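Quick question, first post here. What does this chain look like in 3D?
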Amino acid sequence: MNKKDTKDINNLIKDKSYLPDKAVSTRGLEKIYKVKGNRDIHALRAFDLDVPRGVIFGLLGPNGAGKSTFINILAGLVLKTDGKASVWGIDIDKNPRAARSAIGVVPQELNLDAFFTPKELLELQAGLYGVPPIERHTEDILKRVGLIGVANTFSRELSGGMRRRLLVAKALVHNPPVLVLDEPTAGVDVELRQSLWEFIIELKNNGTTIILTTHYIEEAEQLCDIVAIINDGQLITSDPTEKLVARLDNKELRISISEKIKGIPSNLSKYHAVLNDKNELVFRYQTSKTEINSVLKAISEAGLTVNDISSKEPDLEQVFLDITRKSK
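> Answer (accepted):
Ran it through. Tokens below.
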């Protein structure tokens, strides 16, 4: 590809009217790590994934599932073994430089030069991406991540939360349409986590596509429009978060009883009820097979009076555990 073609593609990335349907797309993506004297490690296997434009996309999986390998291939840090991948419609093989310009990656590790200030680090990062001085927005970015007050402070003097936000700022210097956040809230306190969540949502609302890897299932459930689960280098499922949770056909029902009881009435045995230490009958049942009315009728027939009823819907953590167990 000649310089003119590269320039045209770089201009395309900056063009806000160019909006591909897929922010990231892979087909048959494979990565095999050759290990001398040991069996090769198959980190990604026939990995097909589409990330729609404009969403927060969660990538979940156990340690060693292939999440980091996938991200590093997109970022140009690891060479794939086979398959195809594109970022913002740009093939990573045909134009790797432009593809890298379309993505920003916030690593999990706090790898910052201790002897540079946030302002200096952002200017340096912008230079590495070839952003002309006139097009840089260093102060605006520092304001967005809440670091303008420490713009000239050495990074070694910043708190862990500030350094985490500085990593996000570094990934934004070239204004990428796709941003990858690798465990962005790992090791941060609850207040900062909430602040980062709000910032992630703000980025999405401003048109940035977010790919989020996290060990916090609650985080994925709260933030993500779509969640993909991977295990052993394979894509297990990819669905809108609500649809994914709905796939788990079970529910927990807790019924508080007025009468003090010591055991489960015989007519409730078929529902596999459990009596807890709060004098509650706990039912775990499949919504497609059991009706609540039949449970309540059986309780009434046992001569018991219902004080209170509460239910617990399945959450993403249950779905994740269920799917990863089945995929082993």
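The two ends are 43 Å apart (CA to CA).
The longest helix spans residues 190-205.
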